[in-house]
Amino acid sequence: MLFERWRAPIYRWLIPFTAGIILYNTLEPTRIRAAAMLIGSLILAYLFSRGKSTRTWRWQPLVGLCLFLAVTCSGVLFTSLRDLRQQPSWIGNNRTENTDWLIKIREEATPTRSGWRLTADLQAYQDSTQISSIDGGIHLYTKQRAWALTAKPGDRFWISLPLQRIQNKPNASFDYARYCRQKKITHQSYVQSNTPIHQIPRSKHNLSNRLHRVQSEVRNQIYRALPDSSRAGLATALLIGWKGGLDPERKQHYTRTGTIHIIAISGLHVSLVFEILWRLLFPLLFLRGGALLRQLIALSCIWIFCFIAGAEASVLRAGIMFTAIALGRWMERPVSGMQALGLSMLILLIADPDWLFDPGFQLSHAAVAGILLLHPVLVNVIRPQNRLLKSTWESACMTLAATACTLPLTSYYFHQFPWLFLPANLIAVPLSSLALLGLFFLIPLSIFQLPSEPTTWIITCILDGMNAWVEQLDRIPGAVYSW
Hints:
- The protein is of the alpha+beta class.
- The protein has three domains: 3-82; 91-200, CATH 2.40.50; 209-482, no CATH class.
- 58% of the residues lie in helices and 12% in strands.
- It contains 16 helices and ten strands.
- Strands 1, 2, 3, 4, 5, 6, 7 and 8 form an eight-stranded mixed sheet that branches. A two-stranded antiparallel sheet has the order 9-10.
- A hairpin with a 4-residue loop joins β2 (116-126) and β3 (131-133).
- The longest helix is centred in the last third of the chain and has 28 residues, at 387-414.
- The radius of gyration is 25 Å and the shape is globular.
């Protein structure tokens, strides 16, 4: 019964393709070798499938094995083609001495021990004769607070400085260089106070600039409505995933109690957006073609929300799954949860194979897989008749199912296990859902300058109650087992 849920055709492609990505990152074979293995496995599959009809059944396992190897080799070849280091325009294959670089800011500045760090993408460089295109991601470290805080995602600058390859420190246990490389970042530099920096005027039609302006406006509205910076930082992280204003101590409380997933944008946020839009768009059903229009508007708004929230792996996973399930219902060809999960993994890995090694990607898909596979089994163990007990038991089973599948990953990445994750989530998850619902109504009220004091007061009470519950559990001795 449990393994029948895995019988989705998408996994026949996903599993060998994923194996190819892992194989490339482990052995790093050349493109020629990967292409030769792909062609050889396809030829063998064709030859085995051409056997006599009376003996075809004998060759079917070999045909399947060859096709499995073919998809695996295609994963190896595809990953090598997407590997930035294999491109002639990569910064590592070009000069890195002091020259003029055209950079595009990728992420907002994050504080470090001695200043600020900016992540940017290289677009071009200028030498004495011409301007040439170039690719690669870089970390820029600076103590210039004014420039670091005014540089926003999508902004472009001409900057003159030398670049150095990111390398691990001697005897370091963590492979920081590999971690950065999987995020398409391979070089770094330090921006001095006298470093020449010239900003290029922003383009009105730049999509990343527009998305960042929307995100900044939402953030500003939250901070105006919630004057307390600690509450506003938590509310902003809940709504759009921006963690720049999150209190580090409070973040540690959520991590130690196993409720940090609340702050990460995930399926909970997308499902609330979809549910609100679905109910608000109900009048469209009275129009001709209104059902299709309702579906398209809801899905479009979901994807706008996904990109405003930062387009991380967890939120993109939820967006793809919702889209696949909704389109399947509209086409009267239902898509199961496991099929949608596999489809989201395959699409994201095709978009960027390095996402396979992203902790957010792994934890998000593992949690959903646990819910889809284990939750129906756990729910049937006990069947309470009381509605409140039944709802509490279903929530507990969902938390247990998600934790069971993410436990190996959380143990590997965080080296700790929160013993009180179940009571923490039973209270924190419903409260976070109510806070999100209130924030969805608070933003339009603030934008149109309508009375929002009651909504603000309710959100404040919910956030304070959630924080108090999490902090109280974290203070219990022995609540977390660390190693």
